[in-house]
């Protein structure tokens, strides 16, 4: 890709870092976005191991002004051929026990930051011969689940928005893809939470490295919907909500109660 870069949000750890590593294996350097100095440490580590020219920026993507300032900085200094909107947050809480800041952060990060950063970087992407936007969603987008608050709704928004953008930009240089990871071993806390969900949670658990490889490979092929675990997809997308919603709510309620 020459001097072109991939922008990856939430890149300091977990799936975001693995996505950068997978790009580095292909000789692609990334602009790594994180919330603190850890993203710089991850950047230096990847550059040393893979001989890439990754750069890092810190930004609070829940703040509109920081998103716009970040995009302006990137557009003024780099050619971008890929944007991976990976940063996001969720969790499991009873809705009455979730404070307003918690709910607001999910909405601002999962929805607003993704839409705004994409909007601001699109002129840069459209200058390239071929460009890609990968939005990291969730299997939760297919199931209305109690105790997950607004998280599944935010991922459902992302899925529909990605498909709409793909239609709008059909015939242009930019391809839009949506990935549906299932359970991910992103860190010890998340892994422990998923394992509390019982057999279903453990059975669908995938490593972030496996997910990153499939996401990048299929994004570069222009895939519309990247399904990581076909079994999870069949359960989430095919089984009627009147059956799966109570099942998933019961599983997550068990997780919250422990």
Please give a structural write-up:
The chain has 258 residues and is α/β, with parallel strands linked by helices. The chain has a single domain, classed as Rossmann fold (3-Layer(aba) Sandwich), CATH 3.40.50.720. Helix content is 52%, strand content 15%. It has ten helices and seven strands. It has a seven-stranded parallel beta sheet, with helices on both faces. The relative contact order is 0.13.
Structure in a nutshell:
The chain has ten helices and seven strands. The protein has helices at residues 14-25, 38-50, 64-77, 100-125, 151-168, 188-195, 199-203, 208-220, 230-238, 241-257; strands at residues 4-9, 29-34, 55-58, 79-85, 131-136, 174-180, 225-227.
Mean of residue pLDDT values = 91
Strand order of the largest sheet: 3-2-1-4-5-6-7
Rg result = 18 Å
The tally of structural domains comes to: 1
Q: Approximately how much helix is present in the residues? A: 40-55%
CATH superfamily: NAD(P)-binding Rossmann-like Domain
Structural class estimated from helices and strands: alpha/beta
Using the coordinates shown, work out and report the CATH topology. Rossmann fold
How many strand units? Answer: 7
The percentage of residues in β strands lies in 15-25%
Write down the CATH class. Answer: Alpha Beta
* Poorly predicted runs: none
Determine the N-to-C terminus distance: 48 Å
State the helix count: 10
Order of helices and strands: EHEHEHEHEHEHHHEHH
Overall morphology = globular
Largest sheet: 7 strands, parallel
Q: What is the annotated CATH architecture?
A: 3-Layer(aba) Sandwich
